[in-house]
Each structure stands twice: as C-alpha cells, then as structure tokens.
Specification:
Number of helices: 9
CATH architecture: 4-Layer Sandwich
Structural class: alpha/beta
Largest sheet: 7 strands, mixed
CATH class: Alpha Beta
Strand content: 25-35%
Number of domains: 1
Strand order of the largest sheet: 1-2-3-4-5-8-9
Radius of gyration: 18 Å
C-alpha cells in the first residue's frame, strides 16, 4: 500500500509511503541498546513488524500531507529520485515512480502543494524537495513555500561550505536559489490549525508539526523518535543524533505530555500503520496503534 488516507478532526491526512524495509541493525542504529533489551523486544516488535529476522529495524520512509480546506501541506519529502547516495544503495540514483504515484492516488499533483515543512534537513526528509529537469535541480512543488528553520538551515549551509553535503547541495540549496523558501523559527504557526513546535536534539533545530486548535489533535513527530524501542526506553539515542542528551530529553518531554491523551502521534519512521496514541508501559511508553 503506497498511500493511506484518514481524518483527524476536520482535516484529511494522507500518508505517502516511498518505502518500508529492514534498514539498519538495531544494535548499530541505537548504540546504547543492549543485547538483552533487544532479546526481550523481539516478540513484541513483531506486531506490527518493526524488527526483521536479521534484527534490522524496519523503518517506513514516508511523507504526510495535511489538507485543511484552506491549505495543502506536505510534511517532509522522503528520499527522492536521481540522487547520488552511494552510502545507501536502496536510495542511490533511485528512479521509481512510487512517490508520484502516491500523489496521484490521493488526487493531487505537485502543483497542489502550498507548503513543504521540513522537520529537519537530513537526507531522507528533503529528497523530493527537488527533481532533476534538463540536468538541473528544480523545486518539485513549484507553487509551494518551503519552510526551513533558520537555525537548521544556517547550520547545514555552514557544513556544506566545509565539504559538500549532497542532500544540502541537491535538495536544499536549489530551493534557496529559486527563492521558494521561508526562514522560520521552530515555533512558527503556518495557519490556525498547523504549527511547528521545537523538538531539538536529533538535529540542531529539529521541529515537529502539530495539528488542531492548540495542537491537540495530532503531532507529526519527524525524527525526535525513530523506533518503538525509543518509546520503551526514551534514553536510547539514535547513532547520528546531534545532541544525544538533548534528543533523549526531548523524547521524555513529549512522550510524557502525550501519554494517555487523545492526541494522535503520526510517526515519521514507525512501521505501518505508523500512527496511534501514546500509553504508559512500565517505566517507558508504547504506541497503541490505530489500524482502521
């Protein structure tokens, strides 16, 4: 299933799934995960399938599209096509039509997107910001304003000045050069239903996206959490977190605040169905998935 459509309050939300697969060994992806914790988790991580038989985390790479009636908003833009990613063979020079077919399946074209919200500027969240056209990288969504945290963008532009960072060079800088971007703070309000909320740690100024009056209907997490293992043990930092202690503090804060509420969590990388409610589980938390 390349797409899923559901309602949250008065809005329509689409999941556009670019790929879902066993990705990286859990013990490598989460360096503080112990072999005993992994062994204790194999059974419950099967439902839904969040750990494959090789003990690799199963991750979903997807975008969410929020249709408020006034705006059509894309949250993160996945991996993209034609991108030079030799470190990740499944992403390298990819040419499939999955993402574009997903847009078509939910009745949208690239011209229908009003805003692209980049929770952060990692490779798998900016890929479809641009597409290759006559040998040049151009904005995939020509009418959209791309919202970048100024702090996040400044950091990555400085890194790219030191040595080329391919996703910045091919998926971010062309947006800046085309003057399709808006610099915002990580607590920016897009409209009266959609707002950004600071969730730093994974990157220097990562933000999540909230939906509904007061942000109570849903939160689109981005990468402040990657796996159900990090809900069970929020201190498990991901291997490339910019600030592991801050990322852990962010997870604790938001999982505590969301626990036993009616706020839906729409996770960036949890396996399908990828959304649910946060519940207490021992000293940590779990997702009670929404399957309908």
């Amino acid at each position: 299933m390349a797409t899923q459509t559901f309602r949250i309050g008065d809005t329509i939300v689409h999941r556009i799934i670019e790929m879902e697969c066993g990705f990286t060994p859990a013990l490598e992806f989460l360096p503080k995960l112990t072999p005993q914790q992994l062994a204790d988790s194999r059974e419950w991580m099967k439902n839904p399938m969040a750990l494959d038989p090789q003990d690799r985390l199963v991750l979903c790479f997807q975008a969410y599209i929020i249709r408020t009636g006034k705006h059509t908003i894309l949250v993160d833009s996945c991996v993209g096509n034609d991108k030079d990613r030799p470190a990740r063979p499944i992403w390298h020079m990819k040419t499939d039509s999955v993402f574009m077919d997903g847009l078509k399946e939910v009745g949208l074209t690239v011209n229908d997107i009003d805003f692209v919200l980049c929770t952060h500027l990692h490779v798998d969240h900016v890929g479809w910001n641009t597409r290759l056209e006559n040998g040049r990288w151009v904005p995939t969504f020509p009418r959209a304003r791309y919202l970048f945290s100024k702090t996040e963008l400044d950091f990555w532009l400085a890194e790219n000045d030191k040595a080329t960072v391919p996703p910045i060079a091919d998926s971010v800088i062309p947006i800046v050069e085309a003057k399709r971007h808006d610099l915002v703070t990580s607590d920016h309000a897009v409209n009266d239903l959609v707002s950004l909320i600071p969730t730093p740690g994974h990157t220097i100024d990562h933000y999540a996206v909230t939906l509904g009056k007061g942000g109570k209907d849903a939160i689109f997490t981005g990468d402040f959490i990657h796996s159900p293992l990090q809900a069970k043990w929020p201190d498990l930092a991901m291997r490339i977190d910019y600030d592991p202690l801050q990322s852990s503090a962010t997870r604790w804060k938001f999982l505590e605040s969301l626990c036993d509420t009616n706020t839906q969590c729409c996770f960036a990388h949890f396996p399908t169905p990828s959304r649910g409610y946060i519940k207490r589980w021992g000293d940590g938390f779990k997702c009670e998935y929404i399957t309908a």
